[in-house]
Design goal:
Length: 314
Amino acid sequence: MWTGPTERWRAMLQREEEPRALTIAMQAVRDAEHGPHKDPERLAEARLALAECFLGESRYQDALTELEHARKALHAAPVATVRRLAELDDLEGIAHEALGKPFEAETHFLAALKAREAECGREDPEVATSLENLARLYADGTFEERHAIPLLGRALRILEKAGPSCDHRRVRVLHDLAVLQRNAEHLDEARDLLEDALRVQIDLAGRNDASVAPLLRDLALIYAEKKEWITVEALLRRALVIMDTHPAQEALPYIEDLADAEREMGKVDEALVLYRHAARLYRAVGGQDDIEAAEIEQFVDDLEELRRAHKTES
């Protein structure tokens, strides 16, 4: 997630379907370059918007080219605003991160953080954007993941102070921080964070919104590590009710997780029904030769054979 060039452009890019947004951004660059009034800041804004479009299409090198042009335009402007330069650093960092250049990405994210703290103050929600970007980078495996936790913790405190206008972002940070705490085996902290994220998201979108299901699933996975299978079962069944109206492939991870939970609870018959259902869905999506379906069916066969062996012994 990154900060867009301006609120006006962000709204425009969200309204337009690709490649329509890309066409609009390209036209804005041409207008700014060749219009009667040469305005470097307007040109930089248009190039930032075009770069964001390229990022959305995974055209990272094209994005970097546009960002280089945007930086030159900003330096030619009478006043290059710190916020605009921070936005540019954010986008350059995201492009470098996607291209597998984490140290270049870190340099840009740190520059954006420093600029925003100096311009906006340490408690501004824009500072939380830089903290999120750095935390995501530090959690990707190149750096030590533990460094991401305090960054997200600080971002969370900023967003909590900012109030309801930042609640959507607060849910994301709560969720990301919960994942890191779970990876660090801090299960109670991860559970509490996810329960907070779930509460806020339900307030925002309602109990049956699709955005609630992934939070329920991740919360169930934490309870699974704590071996609290009744809670796991309840959370996953609640998530599956939400996913019932969604494409089958989106529900598959929930079905498999619930099957695993039923098996752990000794409900082998229920688990077998769910595993077979998952295999059918995999074949419906991926064809008769689907590898996932074959692996599940082999697991079902092994589970049934093990159950028969236990019955014979008893």
